[in-house]
Design goal:
The protein is of the alpha+beta class. Helices cover 27% and strands 35% of the residues. It binds coenzyme A.
Length: 161
């Protein structure tokens, strides 16, 4: 098992991983389009294969997690990638780490809350709008729940001095 920051040499493999898990190389958050493989990221490799990936970007609003995926669920990969991202946000002087997810992803909403995140907004209909730009976004998600809205979750943090 190895953990590393995404390097330029990883970008094509990261793009393919994103495409496999998000049906396209593009992801959307609050109506904006992002290409996660071009952004910063933390990679977990097992036997040379990508077992987990967290991509993020940093701006004045803090560290935004763009994608989080674990291929080997239930082994702590997702949680430990999140803890690394929180550490990185502190090192980079961010006061906030945040993300958006969709209204159907109830399990992950619980997962983020256990890490201390709060639900700070629900952007009604934003996923329906995003689907016009990215038609690969499914109409129906986990457990048959129709996908319409975006849930914004954030964690306020103390940056390192
Ligand atoms: C969310 C995700 C990254 C978690 O990764 P993971 O490697 O399973 O994470 P962990 O092993 O640290 O487990 C996280 C929690 O999920 C639980 N869990 C793991 N696999 C599970 C499963 N198949 N069913 C139910 N719960 C499960 C664990 O018990 C753990 O709960 P805890 O916080 O009470 O300990 C992973 O499930 C995933 O890739 N999901 C699909 C993509 C996604 O929705 N990403 C988030 C987009 S915003």
């Amino acid at each position: 098992m190895t953990r590393s920051q995404v390097q330029d040499a990883d970008r094509e493999a990261v793009a393919q991983f994103i495409e496999r898990h998000w049906r396209s190389r593009v992801v959307m958050s609050r109506g904006r389009v992002f290409h996660p493989h071009e952004e910063e990221g933390i990679l977990e490799r097992r036997d040379d294969e990508i077992a987990g990936l967290l991509t993020y970007r940093i701006d004045d609003e803090g560290l935004e997690i763009l994608t989080l995926n674990s291929v080997l669920e239930g082994q702590g990969i997702g949680s430990s990638l999140m803890l690394d991202a929180i550490e990185e946000a502190r090192r980079r002087k961010c006061h906030r780490i945040w993300l958006t997810t969709t209204n159907d992803n109830l399990r992950v909403i619980g997962f983020y809350q256990r890490l201390g995140f709060r639900m700070v907004a629900i952007n009604l209909g934003v996923v329906d709008e995003a689907r016009k730009v990215k038609p690969q976004i499914p109409e129906v998600g986990y457990r048959g729940i129709p996908i319409h809205d975006e849930v914004v979750m954030d964690l306020q943090i103390q940056p390192y001095l």
